[in-house]
Design goal:
Length: about 150
């Protein structure tokens, strides 16, 4: 069957082509991957910074439902205004009339807060608290991002 001098190839270890690497062969793919990774990192860091800068708004919205007294409302409004105005300008607003003037609050609620501020009986009714929660909550959402 076999001619003289013919050798049977070794079949236990056949000749294989060279290995294919797992990494892309061209540097363009590596550059694109690094670019996408950097872009994703920038987006995540911007979102984290925005969330950190907006923490005061989330805390103020959480405190809206806890306020029951005129003193508590005035203190919360002062804390919110300190985020948006310099301390020197805020120092000039010691009276509640001056402090509440730029706020979009009903005149009745403004007068009530001014009248009950620093008084012994400064608790507000549930309807007044509800109206203040709605109006100050709306004002919080309208404030610019810092």
């Amino acid at each position: 069957m076999l001619e003289k001098g013919f050798q049977v190839p070794v079949l236990l270890e056949p000749a294989l082509p060279p290995r294919v690497g797992w990494t892309p062969q061209t540097p363009g793919w590596l550059l694109l991957a690094l670019l996408l990774l950097g872009l994703g990192l920038i987006i995540v860091l911007r979102q984290l910074a925005h969330r950190r800068r907006d923490r005061w708004r989330r805390e103020a919205c959480a405190l809206l439902v806890k306020q029951q007294t005129a003193d508590g409302w005035i203190a919360l409004i002062k804390r919110i205004l300190l985020v948006h105005t310099p301390r020197d300008a805020q120092r000039l607003r010691l009276e509640p009339e001056v402090l509440l003037a730029p706020l979009p609050v009903d005149d009745e609620l403004r007068a009530l807060l001014c009248h009950k501020y620093c008084q012994r009986d400064n608790r507000l009714t549930a309807s007044h608290n509800q109206r203040l929660q709605v109006q100050i909550g709306r004002w919080l959402q309208e404030l610019p991002y810092v």
